[in-house]
Amino acid sequence: MIAISGAPRRVPSAARVPTLLSCAAVLVALAAAVELGRDGVLQAWTAVAFAAVIAFGEAMRVALPGGRDSAPIAETATLGYLLAFKMGGHPATHPPAEVIVVVTTATLLGTSVQAYAGRPPQAGYLARRILTAAIAAAVYRSWLLDGTVRGLAHRHQGPLLCTTLAAVALGAVIVSHLLAVLISLLDAGPPAGLSGPPPGAVFPHGAGRGRLTWRQVGAGVVAECRTAGRVCPTVVLFGTATALAVGPLGEWGLALAIAPILVVQRSLHRYAAISATYQQTIRALSRVTDLAGYTEPGHARRVCHLALAIGRDLSMPSDDLLDLEYAALLHDIGQLSLTDPIPGGATVLISPERAASVAGLGADVVRQTGVLGRVADILESQALPFAATAGTEPVRLAGSIIRAANAYDDMVGGALDPDRRLAAVHRIRLGMAVEYDPRVVESLTRIVESTRPYPG
Predict the structure, then answer these.
(1) What is the pLDDT of residue 15?
(2) What pLDDT is stored for residue 216 in this prediction?
(3) Which residues neighbour 57 within 8 Å (Cβ) at sequence distance 6 or greater?
(4) pLDDT for the residue numbered 12
(5) Residue 107's pLDDT is what?
(6) Element containing residue 9 per DSSP (H, E)
(7) Which of 41, 80, 385, 409 has the highest CB neighbour number within 10 Å of its CB?
């Protein structure tokens, strides 16, 4: 059982929510397939048309920054099929089981195309899509359709009908994103932008996710709302419009209503491409100090992995985690301007004044890009002791996280010796509340004590 309280508890590995959700989705899909096989498909051409559009939308799915998947075309078509009460002037009689089977089949086809291209979906993505369709179909097509919705349509109460359909669509989207929050909190994937861990890195995937607190749930909901706010209103609007358009126009209404969402899809692709370019550039820059011999090999990536593990454990929103990732990868970029390199690149061993100077040089380089201003602020903040930090809370926290993660890796590097790791944590704890943020130190301690390093 999952404990949600102020005093975090570990969730047994056998009861991990993403696994349970996947099992539930499989059972729901099988039950729907058995029922549909017994009763037969009622409107085959309609099912094929919507399945084709949903599959196409899933095949065009976009991976947004922070590892979020978005498929606005598929989501819009799913809502249209779910909400349809008429089809070409005739009643849309497809039952909940047919909705579940169509959505499941189309989603599997579309994600298979993505997986074949080397872009598998996020953990729990399929389960979330299937369960959302099942819940919404059970509520709407079993309870609201025959009485409420058809009654409003028969009485020609258009505004109230549109409001009802939009409310159901919004409820389905909310359920989908709440499931996404739960999955992301308990089954964190690799840090955004990093394809794999460097040797000796502390294992961060799911670090802090074995415990779930109200603060983490709240922060996860806020982060999901920020992400969903970019697409959710459009999906709800066009999903409702699709359900209304197919009533008089049939399958042609589907094409007409889906066409505008292609613009949103195009915008998401461009946004994702720009973000990917940023990430690739920053990853390349983070290796410069290693290649030039200013820092130990893999130092920036190890610091980044540990910093992101701490950030997730402290429930940082996804946007702040992205800034933290960029700042962690670039935290030593200022060393390139030094004529007298720091031995091993270990800034923890130099004077505070010199460390602040190096951080300031790196912040100036980053600030000149014109697009990473907050990352530059974090780089300046990470050189300051906790007692002297200033600025907005996200910047202060990110700077404190990088300061502790950098100090830890300066003392441990890629070593796998548990005693050396614990000794580094103990040394950092001695500076708690003066040099290091107590929240960060406690999180670092939990992560190091509860996880094992990657083998070299």
Answers:
(1) 42
(2) 61
(3) 71, 72, 73, 74, 75, 76, 77, 110, 265
(4) 38
(5) 95
(6) none
(7) 409
- CA proximity to 83, closest of 255, 230, 237: 237
Is residue 131 within 8 A of residue 21, CB to CB? The reply is yes
Question: In whole angstroms, what is the distance from residue 109 CA to residue 262 CA?
Answer: 20
Residue 84 CA from chain centroid, whole number? 31
pTM: 0.73
- β-bridge partners, 91: 86
**Contact yes or no for 66/318 (Cβ under 8 A):** yes
| Confidence (pLDDT) at 204 | 44
Instruction: Determine contact, residues 170/231, Cβ cutoff 8 Å.
Output: no
The domain tally of the chain equals 2
**pLDDT of res. 51:** 95
3-state secondary structure (DSSP) of residue 420: helix
Residue 188 placed within a domain: yes
pLDDT at 57: 93
DSSP letter for 39, please. H
Q: How far apart are CA 191 and CA 197, in angstroms?
A: 9
Domain assignment present for 4: no
Same domain, 215 and 337: no
DSSP-assigned states of every residue in 226-272: HHHTTTHHHHHHHHHHHHHHHHHHTHHHHHHHHTTHHHHHHHHHHHH
Regarding whether 402 and 260 lie in a shared domain, the answer is no
Q: Looking at the structure, do residues 370 and 343 belong to the same domain, yes or no? A: yes
Domain boundary among 219, 239, 269: 269
* Residue 226: per-residue pLDDT: 66
Contact 335, 360 (CB under 8 A): no
Q: What is the pLDDT of residue 191?
A: 44
**Residue segments in the chain with a per-residue pLDDT below the cut of 50:** 1-15, 188-196, 203-210, 454-456
Give the CA-trace dihedral at 180, 183, 184, 190, to 10 degrees. -120
At residue 58, the pLDDT reads 93
CB 82 within 8 Å of CB 136 = yes
Residue where the block lists tokens 């497809």: 94
Q: Are residues 255 and 305 in the same domain?
A: no
What angle do helix axes 393-412 and 418-430 make, rounded to 10 degrees? 140
Answer whether 186's CB lies under 8 Å from 28's CB. no
**Cβ-count burial of 39 within 10 angstroms (0-12 exposed, 13-18 middle, 19+ buried)?**
exposed
